[in-house]
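Morning, I've got a small favour to ask if you have a moment. It would help a lot if you went through both lines with me. Thanks so much in advance, here it is.

***
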Amino acid sequence: MSAATGDLSLEQFILETNRLGTGAMSLSEFATLAVRLELDDALVGAHVRFDDAHYARNLLCRTPQFELLVLCWRPGQASTVHDHAGSLNVTRVYRGTLVQRKFSRRDGGPGTTRLDQAESGELPCGPVEQIEEEVFAGAGSATVDRGDIHQLRNDSDESLVTVHLYAPPLTDIVVYSLTAATTEVMRLRYTLQDDFA
């Protein structure tokens, strides 16, 4: 089963992101490009691997401009409430139903908007509160701009497969609390050891 396909192969997508550069790209520009990436079983299928303990992050491709991952979610699995430390994100539903919840800081400020904020310790504060919830199924796409705070969930009783594009590649996230002012930088890792080879 595959999500709606676009008109760019992975190789063409790599060439296009290298040509355009993603550093100053807007979310709208990146989302327009990301939905053009053709997703099918030949590209995604070999990277569908689940983990019963938590959602699985499976690396498909990484360049200096973007990162492409396949995330696999068992029923009830969810991410933390987090921002992307300055990276743009488009999440395409490949199979199943995705819930995205967006949050805002109670003091009105944004999440982490620059890549160097997480490294330098210039972190925004919590707590955060939920402001929006969207459900994506079929060929739907969820987006996250620089500074957006969100959580992804599989609230259904079926497995979920999503394809995530991050520009630039996502190495850290900043995790927020619903009750406390403290935030935490979390270094991301891929699920499988062979993804590091």
In short: The chain has one domain: 10-188. Residues 10-188 form a domain with the Jelly Rolls fold (CATH 2.60.120.10). Residues 8 and 193 are 29 Å apart (CA to CA). Confidence is low (pLDDT under 50) at residues 1-5.
